[in-house]
Amino acid sequence: EGVVVATFEQTPDTEDAVNLFYGALTDDGEDVKSLDDTYTIIYPSSAPLDLSSQSGALDEGLVRMTATYSGKLEDISSVDFTGHQTSIIKLAFKKEDETFIGGTNIVKVEAEYQGDIIEINANNSREEIYMFVNPASGNHTVDFIVKTTGGNYKGQLNVTKDIEPGKYYRANVDVSELNTYSTVNPPIPVMPNKGSGTEQYPFLIETTAHLRWFFEYYTPYEFYQLESDFLIESTKDAPWLLGVGTGVIPPFSGILNGNGKTIYGTIYAGDSNPVCGFVGINQGVIRNLNVSAKIVGSGAVTSLLGYNASGIGAVAGLNYGVLENCSSNGSVSAEEGAVVSSMSNVIVGVGGVAGANLGGNIINCSNSASVTGVDIYNCSGPWTSAAGIVGVTIGGQIGDCTNDGDIVSGKTNSGESVASGILGFGKRMYDGLDIAIDGCVNLGLVSTVDSDGGYYIAAGIVGYLTDYLDNGGSMTDGNSRITNCENGGEIRTGTVSGSVNVKVAGIIGSSWIVDIANCTNRANGVLNIGRISSGDVYAGGIAGMFGGDEFNLDALDVSTTMSNCANYAAVKGSASASIQYIGGIIGEIRTGKKIIVTLCVNSGNVSADNYEYTGDESYSLVGGISGLNNSGWASVYNCQNSGAITGAKVGCSLVGGITGANVGLKVYSLEKYY
After folding, report:
1. What does the pLDDT read at residue 58?
2. pTM for this entry
């Protein structure tokens, strides 16, 4: 009732065309299953459709229509597409002069919707665009790039209502023209005619010609300010090389105020560049910049940070300076198929804001981009690290940063693979400079990939952090520290077919001589560990492994503390692991002197049910505070557990309200729960 029914013959060449076309039924009311099916599409009777123009084949799974709508996003129909979980939004794009972009001008539309990039190839055919989306709750935005034969435009749709499954919506999107910088045919550089490069009068970058001038002639300690959004279109063969620090291109060492403007498009590093970002290497200050671009690194490595290393990040590939109030919401990864192999001392960092950081400061930055690590095979002791803010840091500070993007690790068969919400891999700087992480929050999904073996770490805030110095330098400024951080994102590991070592935690996967205070793993920060063939699992609401001074540096009087931390989420081991250390706060308190855990509280349920394990021997150590205390010099003071503790059904299982197994630990607790 109340609908107009239009029927079309489908004649696509491939199965993909069928997959693109949602909200359609066969004449019998069934889902589309064959290229030979006749499709029926349901529209509301109020839609101003000229049905005579609707005859003919579907264009890439989308119906050609001529109607123009105005107004905010609204329901066109309350009629459900029975059995379909997707929805349709009909879009029209309106320029600042109130005219619509239409006719044969639109070539492609790119939409960022719920963290995913949706590309719609319009084939110069119509004024309106039909976007098929998954349902989502209201109060979010959708960013658009509209590429036309007459120029490129940007726009944003504010969605204030829920997108329900099977519903049909319409919206006008106001757009403005973008300055488009193509590395294939870049403009002639023109010096800005406004500003003098001082703090009071920075150079104002308004056009692509100004951007080209900035690209080629930036000067240390001078001030620059963006006055426009820019669309950067680079390719693998014509990469974007701003500040890459190779050849004649020096690192960026000026002061750039992004002024709240946004960088769109695609940024490639090219085949041989080890750093990739809007700025390759930053030695200056970059603030107030948004990067909503696809960042594609090469995976190439060179001598950086004391390793064979590379850094891929949205704002900077490698940061020595300051990144402040910057954001990323595109995607960050190496190019498809990139692999680092057959090398030693390798470390590759991929981060939503910065790929790698050497003693720099990253303050008040956020990431909503998807971040994917680089695969490393057959190397000697490598690290591949992916994180929401920075992949790898040697020294430096990270403060008041937030991630809600999805983070996925790279694969490895010979080293460590890390995925984390804020920082992947961290190490005290060679001259003793510590690492400080404060006030950071992760809300994104953090996961490791399915693999055939290796060492994997997944955590909400930090993957791996150590204060050990390879060169024997002295620690003069106290331990590195993680303070006032929260995780509310799910932490998940993939399925591993071979032998594996897995560390999973709400705050930090593995730490050595690191102080942790006032950190919380929320109830939705659930730890889900995938199936593994064999190996060890360390899982804790706060830390998977918490280690102290393993080398007993008495002269330095080194102690390691965790205080005032709380876990509210369920902590569950792998159903197929051979050895598990599972704790509400810490999986294992590792060998080391003077480890102190105090005033920590767990209320999440803790379990190590390995019902799928089929090997000869199995050990599970499960505790409300720690699974295993493996240090004769550790103390636990005034800690509480109220979560249910469940041991494994297979093999040897040691279960305790406070600790599963104890090697020399001193426990002083105000309250006991059994």
Report:
1. 29
2. 0.84
Q: Which pLDDT does position 612 carry in this prediction?
A: 65
* Residues, the chain: 674
Across 311-333, b (16+ Cβ under 10 Å) vs e yields bbbbbbbbbbbbbbbbbbbbbbb
Phi, psi angle pair for 41, to nearest 5°: -115, 135
Phi and psi, residue 554, nearest 5°: -60, -35
Neighbours of 671 (CB within 10 A): 12
pLDDT tens-digit readout, 357-388: 999 999 999 999 999 999 888 777 788 999 99
Which helix (H) or strand (E) covers residue 208, if one does?
Answer: helix 208-217
Measured CA to CA, the distance from residue 119 to residue 549 in angstroms comes to: 52
Place of tokens 């690790």: 409
Give me the DSSP letters along 501-558: EEEEESSEEEEESEEEES-EE-TT--EE---EEEEEEEEESSEEEEE-BTT--GGGT-
Helix (H, G, I), strand (E, B) or coil at 440: coil
Query: Where do the domains of the chain lie?
Result: 3-177, 202-668
The rounded radius of gyration (Å) of the Cα atoms in the chain is: 27
Strand partners, 304: 307
Strand duo 302-304 + 290-297: pairing: unpaired
Cβ partners under 8 Å of residue 650, min gap 6: 610, 611, 613, 618
- Secondary structure element (H or E) that encloses residue 646, with its range: strand 645-646
Kindly tell me the burial class for residue 19, based on how many C-beta atoms sit within 10 Å of its own C-beta (0-12, 13-18, 19 or more). exposed
Say whether 209 sits in a helix, a strand or coil.
Answer: helix
Instruction: Write the pLDDT tens digit of every residue in 99-116.
Output: 878 656 788 888 888 777
Q: Are 36 and 18 in contact (CB under 8 A)?
A: no
